[in-house]
Amino acid sequence: MEQEAAPKITDVARVAGVSTATVSRALSKPETVAKQTREAVLAAAAETGYRINLAARNLRRRSTGAIVLLVPNLGNPFFSQILAGIESTLSSRGLSTLMVDTKHSGSGDEFILDYLHHSRADGIISLDGSLPPSILNSPGMAAENLPIVFGCEWLQNGHYPSVRANNEQGALLAIEHLASLGHSNIGYINGPDENVLSQVRKASTKRALKDRGVPVREDWFFAGDFTLESGASVARKWMKMEDRPSAIFCANDEIAFGLISELHQSGIRVPDQLSVIGYDDIDIAKRYIPALTTIWQPRFELGQTVAELLLKGVTDGGFGDTIQVKTLPVRLIIRQSTSAP
Amino acid sequence: MEQEAAPKITDVARVAGVSTATVSRALSKPETVAKQTREAVLAAAAETGYRINLAARNLRRRSTGAIVLLVPNLGNPFFSQILAGIESTLSSRGLSTLMVDTKHSGSGDEFILDYLHHSRADGIISLDGSLPPSILNSPGMAAENLPIVFGCEWLQNGHYPSVRANNEQGALLAIEHLASLGHSNIGYINGPDENVLSQVRKASTKRALKDRGVPVREDWFFAGDFTLESGASVARKWMKMEDRPSAIFCANDEIAFGLISELHQSGIRVPDQLSVIGYDDIDIAKRYIPALTTIWQPRFELGQTVAELLLKGVTDGGFGDTIQVKTLPVRLIIRQSTSAP
DNA sequence: CTGAAAGCGCTTACAG
DNA sequence: CTGAAAGCGCTTACAG
Question: How far is the alpha carbon of B91 from chain A, nearest alpha carbon, in Å?
Answer without folding.
Answer: 7
